[in-house]
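Researcher: I need the complex structure. Ligand is adenosine monophosphate. Inputs:
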Amino acid sequence: MSALAPSRIVLLGAPGAGKGTVAKVIKSELGLAHLSTGDMLRSAVKEGTPVGTQAKTFMDRGALVPDDVMVALIEERVSDADCKGTKGDVQFLLDGFPRTLPQADALADRGLGPHKVIYLNVPKEVVVARLSGRRTCLGCGTPYHIEHRPPQKAGVCDVCASELVHRSDDHETPIRKRLDAYQQMTAPLVGHYQDVLETIDGNQPPEVVANSVLYAIGASS
Ligand code: AMP
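Model: Output:
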């Protein structure tokens, strides 16, 4: 990684804005550990841990998991070896955290504020269409779309051949609730991070979004 590249990046945007896809692009360019709180919680649910059991009731109805649970989860995760830079500094690519002002404050209080926040701006109706048609691989998490990006074989992941599922929160009612939660609790972070914010039009073809993101993090000209 270049000495000037940001080493703590936050991806901000509504559910379905494309944060996971952009995370892959940044990770392959900068090699930062990708911390997706949604993925972490889904693993915890699958494993039946106490955090997973508690989180599931919120996730299934499209509500946010309480801040103290999320902050504890991230605090533990950033102490892992893959979040350590060569000088002992903490590095990460956060996807889905922070989602509230108290979560952003918790990062700042620990001296872990982001150097760059990539905000993916996508109209509400576009994300509703993306999420309701989304199917997700149970094995590797690769997202598909029933119309725009179908797998080669129905219901089976092209990458790892695991089963594709329609996530319980990717149905109309929880989608609307997640977007309401985003509007009320997460959208204020756009203003909060204005000094380090890069706004990207996320309603463009994936390769155009990827190039804009690489430019924003200083990885292309
Ligand atoms: P995602 O895959 O990022 O859309 O997250 C799925 C669900 O996990 C969300 O709808 C929330 O219920 C929960 N979640 C993920 N990250 C957070 C967070 N930072 N704060 C609160 N809830 C979260």
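Model: Summary of the prediction. The chain has a mean pLDDT of 94.
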